[in-house]
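Readers outside the structure-tokenisation community will struggle with the description of the input data as it stands. What matters is that the chain and its backbone geometry are given together, residue for residue. For illustration, here is how one protein appears when written out as sequence plus structure tokens:

…
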Amino acid sequence: MAGIFTSLVALIAVGLPVAVALGVVTLIFLAPTPIPWTIVPLQMFAGMENFVFIAMPLFMIAGELMNRSGIAEDLIELAASVVGAVRGGLAMVNIGASMLFAEISGSAVADVAAQGTILIPQMEQRGYPRAFAAAITSSSASIAIIIPPSLAFIIYGAIAEVSVAKLFIAGIAPGVLLAGALAVTSYIFAVRYGWPTEGPFQLARVVRAFRRAIWGLTLPVIILGGILGGIFTPTEAAAMAVLAALLVGLLVTRRFSIFDLPEIILTAAKRTSVVLLMVATSFAFGWLLANQGIPQKIAETMVGLTDNRFLLMFLINILLILLGMILHGSAALVLTVPLTLPLVTSLGYDPIHFGVILALNGAIGQQTPPVASVLLTACSVSGCKLGEVMYYNKWFVLAMFVTLQIVTYVPSLSLFLPRILVP
């Protein structure tokens, strides 16, 4: 068992892509056995024969189309009109805009790229430290991994063979809770340092902003409304989202033309291919782990530490956070699901609930070096050093950790909406 993980970590450490490292380790440890290597491509193809995976490139395309449509600016203005009157208003705007943009892109990195160039300079002009602006932009962007349409939920749903629609709905309440925790943390900073509001609340401004942002808000309505109404599956919802985003960009905002579509689709295809190759090789790697009985050995080891299910779940969360610090979100997800899902289900946890727990762990991993893909993107956009941003961001990570504990030990927070809304 130790040899498999040591080899995997070593290959990743020397710079081998995670997808390739998973495949190579699988082949190496199959070599001494009588099992033919042909099992690897068979497991890869068998794992990818899932209709839900079509949703991933479609959501990638929809996010790219909406990003280029100039919708981000309209969503920021809508958030400013609603929450800007609170002290530290621009920080609240940042969080609110991230929640809205999460409903479009499903990607935290896309959120930072779209909002960071707009909000970070504005926050600095109004007296916020640039490093704080980068920190709240980075942390709030990770809401995208929890609020639907979450790409992490699509991957988890396929690997764990659970309903993506239920996962989407299960992420809503924890996503709102996380946004609230980040908002409280921002408010404490704002009160301590005397940061300003964005002026009094004006209903007329909200109405004007809503009219401008109405097209950007159509995607969440299409995605969630269609799924909850039983009109189409999450994959079909992704196709409808692409159609809506295309019509908005071509006919309403007119920020791109039909001649830009090949470039947009190619960009989305590149991003999708990296993730899907990783997922495919993870199926073969997961098969190897199951064949070697490793999930059972890990379960026996952890149960040997304590028989308290709550303490065991806390230890699992710590393990997931540590993995998230050294692996990118999708890589950590595809590696940990085969290992931990059998254990947590044996403890009585619902697989839907565990999917939300995994997503929250992924959000923390996006903010904790050395990998910290979203945090590093925010540093790049803002021009701040990592240490400067972490001075503030550590408190947002703490807020995420507290949210993770609440979601872990209050299952109804994740499960009550799916039980009510999804048959």
